[in-house]
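tokens incoming
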């Protein structure tokens, strides 16, 4: 089952986006190490038992290390040496306790300690991502690691209670625990691999959602999100009592074509990002700036009245005018013209408010630019 899981992950490798592949490769290698260890455990009788036991346990401990590394890579953490230390020390200790001093009790304690350290590190990592990654698959993975870690600690306690001494054998009293161990441990490579693939697909889904709703250049919500949010807020404002409060501003950079013509399209792109950042910094509370397209932005206001509409537009205009766009030697003062519209009785849709704000914007351009006009 473990080998099949590792194989499936290998077949799917190329279907995963490039940034997820190192983590998936580590998970696959870890699963194959786990599978190799399990096969050796099953074949203990056929080989010199001492060496087989050390090798089997070592493979499984390095498998667990691989799972921790895969999770770290999945969350963009750098490789660190300490991650391999428990498995290296554990394998050396097992070598000693099997082939030099033959201490079965010591072996159980070493294996339990290494498993616990690696699994607790994986659990802490998964839990620490709660705020960044709310995916259910991440929680399932954390629960899986926790269940196995609790079992391993219980197992160590159980063997200690039975009397761990150098001559202790897991094949003697309490042998059922020796049978249960591989079954519980197998949940990581088998169910864990499913959880890992779900974590990948959940991340891909979120990335697609973000890409579909965000403007690639400025990082602001795109036109699609603007229309969605605008219609939602418009409907809410129309149906709430007292009605009103919905308003928006259409913001257009003045003489933007000149920037492209004189400094190149790429510089124009950087200037667009600059204006986007200025507008974002001027927004308060639930105000939402979005890129409508080209060099035009729209800001959805929150609870604006006709009396403070002009001041709200001025706040945006000032945010751009007060800080020139600087790129190396180049210092370009930028200005924007703004049309503001507040919801009125005659507005039947979000689009009708947008149209009135557009007309106010044209009036601002016609009146000389770098100014705010409020729609009648
Ligand atoms: N660099 C860059 N330029 C863009 C982008 N989208 C639109 N533009 C440019 O924005 C310019 C808009 O020019 P116009 O509509 O003539 O307006 P303007 O020069 O800003 O003049 P006014 O609006 O009348 O003040 C055009 O040159 C477009 O090519 C973009 O994503 N990047």
């Amino acid at each position: 089952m473990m080998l099949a899981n590792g194989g499936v992950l290998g077949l799917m490798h190329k279907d995963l986006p490039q940034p997820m592949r190192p983590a998936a490769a580590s998970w696959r290698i870890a699963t194959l190490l786990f599978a190799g260890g399990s096969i050796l455990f099953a074949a203990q009788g056929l080989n010199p038992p001492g060496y087989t036991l050390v090798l089997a346990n070592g493979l499984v401990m390095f498998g667990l290390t691989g799972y921790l590394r895969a999770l770290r890579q999945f969350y963009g953490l750098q490789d660190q040496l300490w991650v391999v230390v428990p498995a290296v020390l554990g394998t050396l200790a097992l070598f000693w306790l099997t082939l030099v001093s033959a201490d079965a009790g010591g072996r159980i304690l070493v294996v339990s300690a290494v498993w616990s350290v690696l699994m607790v590190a994986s659990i802490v990592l998964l839990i620490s991502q709660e705020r960044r990654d709310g995916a259910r698959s991440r929680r399932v993975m954390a629960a899986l690691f926790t269940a196995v870690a609790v079992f391993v600690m219980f197992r160590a306690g159980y063997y200690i209670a039975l009397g761990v001494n150098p001559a202790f054998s897991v094949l003697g009293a309490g042998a059922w625990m020796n049978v249960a161990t591989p079954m519980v441990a197998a949940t990581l490579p088998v169910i864990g691999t499913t959880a890992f693939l779900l974590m990948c697909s959940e991340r891909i889904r979120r990335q697609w959602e973000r890409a579909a709703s965000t403007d690639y250049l400025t990082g602001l919500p795109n036109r699609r999100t603007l229309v969605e949010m605008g219609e939602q807020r418009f409907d809410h404002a129309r149906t709430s009592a007292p009605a009103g409060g919905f308003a928006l501003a259409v913001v257009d950079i003045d003489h933007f074509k000149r920037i492209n013509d004189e400094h190149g399209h790429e510089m124009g792109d950087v200037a667009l990002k600059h204006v986007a950042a200025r507008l974002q910094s001027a927004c308060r509370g639930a105000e939402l700036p979005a890129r409508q397209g080209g060099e035009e932005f729209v800001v959805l206001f929150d609870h604006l009245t006709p009396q403070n509409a002009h001041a709200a537009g001025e706040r945006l205009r000032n945010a751009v005018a007060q800080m020139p766009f600087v790129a190396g030697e180049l210092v370009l003062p930028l200005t924007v013209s703004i049309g503001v519209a507040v919801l009125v009785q005659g507005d039947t849709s979000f689009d009708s408010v947008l149209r009135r704000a557009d007309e106010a914007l044209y009036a601002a351009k016609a009146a000389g630019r770098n100014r705010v006009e409020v729609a009648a």
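note: The beta strands are 247-253, 288-293, 296-301, 325-327, 330-332, 336-342, 372-374.
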